[in-house]
Write a structure and sequence with these properties.
The complex is a heterodimer of chains A (about 180) and B (about 425).
Chain A (H helix, E strand, L loop, with lengths): L1 H42 L8 H22 L8 H8 L3 H36 L11 H29 L17
Chain B lengths: L1 H12 L4 H15 L6 H11 L6 H15 L1 H13 L5 H14 L5 H18 L4 H13 L8 H10 L3 H30 L8 H26 L5 H19 L1 H39 L1 H12 L3 H15 L5 H18 L4 H15 L7 H10 L3 H24 L2 H16 L1
Helix pairs in contact in B: 1-2, 2-13, 3-13, 4-12, 4-13, 5-6, 5-11, 6-7, 6-8, 6-10, 7-8, 7-18, 8-18, 8-19, 9-10, 9-16, 9-17, 10-17, 10-19, 10-20, 11-12, 12-13, 13-16, 14-16, 15-16, 15-17, 16-17, 17-19
Classes of the chains: A mainly alpha (about 180), B mainly alpha (about 425).
């Protein structure tokens, strides 16, 4: 069972870190190049794409939405750790582990709920053919990217929860994925 | 309101990710509210990020990282050293000046402190500067980037409050300059007391450094010139900054630059993702606040309590400084602005003045333990213990406090430049 979970989590992390992460980075790079092209086109050639600003906004936000899951997998979303670190220093290691598991459970609940609540919102946008400000771009694919990201965040958080519960039991699982991967600045 | 604040602070205290705490507490409330439906939270999250102005953040982050890779920061350093390195304690001033110059390129104070830690620290030690001063000047100098355009903090404040980012950028100039001067005063005092070494002045070195750093100096010209001239929106200025950094990188080091482009984009999107996740969660939180009218209730309470605008600002700043002991700058902004901004407006406080006070308080928070990110960035890159960096930051923190009080008491320090510059653009 443990081996199966380890292998599954490795595959998910590979998909997130290598495939989704790099795809999101490439999309962001592409959106940046398009924004640059738009500026040149507007200020030098005097042409304006009505949908230009929308394309930049949605491409960048869409790529960042996908990346949310990568950040969550690395446990890099900002948190206030002063309280738990103080407890750890005072020797309450078990309490800290229990708190961490509780927080992870809460995050899992939130991400799952958002993914589920997002379904009717995306469906509604699809049915109504909701478009961006320029009335050119359809909004639902980007909402779907956010929805997928919440679902992926829920998925990796489920593995985090398993890791945290095992840590409470004194067992170390997924040693290649440390609990505190930290923020890369 | 009691329920949501208890839930929020409870979650924050146990170390929940700030975004999860914000959106989670709001969602818990929405679930039990008879009028609001849960599906609105997803839409609130999405629509808050569906904002063209917000895209300035990833562009400026990306431009900063790209510039870091082109090696232009070293050139800026050489220029700063050639300009001021010849006076006693000159290399410490040069570090400060380079921090201000780099602040005009990168919007992230922590990235700046980390970069300066790698470049300036070994040289400061080599030239006989004490460890505490070297680490302190880097940690505090890095914070000035928050006030110098393009500042991620000011862009975020502008997005959250729908205030003019151009005005905020101009408003940051004088206080940013005052912070640099106040830090220079500390170096002046220390260099007299410790008899710090002086470098030598050479016109030749100055000329060479000026020519070599010219490409770096063009960046603020593009950004500020474009914004001031009314040519660019902040987002376009960010894209133009990226264009410049990419063009320079491809021209100067094409092979290395191509190889490093994807990893640099990866770093930029990583930081953007952290900021955007928080902003999306604030969208959910603000949606609840707006629907329930709680900021108005707080404003009413503050007015009934008899707080004047000045005393309110004073209490708010103390609160921000206390918060900065536990939270980083972006987190402080997203947690406090939705609540206190409407209150400030109802008290007649100028939103631009408020934004600059927030930025200075956050700048100071960058070196206040235990969370001060700049302390850790400098400690991480230099190997100096955090306590030693903190020790070095204390004198600078005191003078920063003086600047904060001055800007609080004299709003004109923040408001004069945007009033003059932005109006004159419209008058053209």
């Amino acid at each position: 069972m443990e081996q199966f979970l380890d292998r599954t989590y490795r595959i998910i992390r590979f998909l997130l870190d290598q495939i989704i992460g790099n795809t999101a980075a490439i999309v962001m790079l592409g959106a940046t190049c398009f924004a640059i092209f738009e500026i040149i086109n507007r200020y030098i050639f005097g042409n304006v794409f009505q949908w230009g600003q929308d394309a930049v906004t949605y491409l960048i936000s869409g790529s960042v939405f996908l990346f949310f899951a990568v950040t969550q997998a690395r446990r890099s979303h900002l948190a206030v750790t002063a309280g738990t670190e103080l407890l750890k220093e005072k020797g309450f290691k078990k309490t800290v582990l229990a708190i961490r598991a509780a927080v992870t459970l809460m995050s899992l609940t939130m991400f799952t709920a958002y993914a589920l609540w997002g379904i009717p919102a995306v469906e509604r946008s699809m049915l109504m053919g909701r478009t961006s400000q320029s009335m050119v771009l359809l909004v639902w694919p980007f909402q779907l990217a956010l929805l997928a990201s919440f679902a992926l965040m829920a998925l990796v958080t489920a593995f985090h929860l398993y890791q945290d519960i095992q840590a409470m039991r004194g067992k170390k699982v997924f040693p290649w994925a440390p609990v505190e991967e930290g923020l890369e600045i | 309101m009691g329920f949501i604040s208890t839930a929020l602070f409870g979650l924050l205290a146990i170390g929940a990710p700030i975004g999860v705490a914000l959106a989670g507490a709001a969602t818990l409330f929405i679930m039990y509210d008879p009028i609001l439906t849960p599906s609105t939270v997803f839409r609130a999250f999405f629509s808050f990020l569906d904002n063209y102005t917000l895209m300035a953040i990833p562009f400026f982050i990306f431009a900063g990282y790209l510039m870091e890779r082109t090696g232009l920061i070293d050139k800026l350093f050489m220029l700063a050293d050639a300009i001021i390195g010849w006076v006693p304690g000159g290399f410490a001033y040069a570090t400060l000046l380079a921090a201000v110059l780099f602040g005009a390129i990168s919007g992230s104070s922590t990235a700046m402190a980390a970069a300066m830690g790698m470049i300036a620290y070994p040289e400061l030690i080599k030239r006989g500067y004490p460890v505490w001063l070297s680490a302190g000047v880097i940690a505090c100098g890095g914070g000035i980037a928050i006030l110098i355009p393009p500042s991620i903090t000011l862009i975020l404040f502008g997005v959250l409050t729908e205030e003019s980012i151009v005005k905020l950028f101009f408003a940051g100039f004088i206080p940013g300059f005052m912070l640099a001067i106040s830090n220079a005063v500390v170096i002046l005092g220390v260099s007299f007391y410790l008899k710090l070494p002086a470098g030598t002045f050479s016109w030749k070195a100055l000329g060479k450094a000026a020519i070599e750093s010219m490409p770096a100096m063009m960046m603020p010209v593009i950004i500020l010139g474009g914004l001031y001239g009314g040519v660019f929106t902040p987002t376009e200025a960010g894209a133009a900054a990226c264009a410049y950094a990419l063009a320079y990188g491809f021209y100067k080091k094409p092979k290395i630059f191509i190889k490093e482009l994807l990893p640099v984009t990866f770093r930029a999107i990583n930081l953007t993702s952290i900021v955007f996740f928080l902003v999306g969660c604030v969208g959910v939180f603000q949606f609840l606040l707006a629907n329930k009218g709680w900021p108005q209730d707080i404003a009413e309470w503050v007015i009934n309590f008899g707080l004047t605008p000045m005393s309110f600002l004073f209490v708010l700043i103390l609160f921000l400084l206390v918060l900065s002991m536990f939270l980083n700058g972006v987190a402080i902004l997203v947690l406090t602005v939705p609540i206190f901004f409407p209150v400030s407006l109802s008290l007649g406080i100028d939103p631009i003045h408020l934004g600059i006070l927030f930025a200075i308080a956050i700048e100071m928070g960058g070196v206040i333990p235990p969370v001060g990110l700049n302390l850790f960035a400098v400690s991480g890159t230099t190997g100096v213990p955090v306590t030693k960096v903190m020790q070095g930051a204390i004198p600078f923190l005191i003078t920063d406090g003086v600047v904060l009080v001055l800007v609080l008491l004299f709003p004109i320090l923040a408001l004069w430049l945007p009033d003059v510059m932005v109006q004159s653009v419209f008058a053209k």
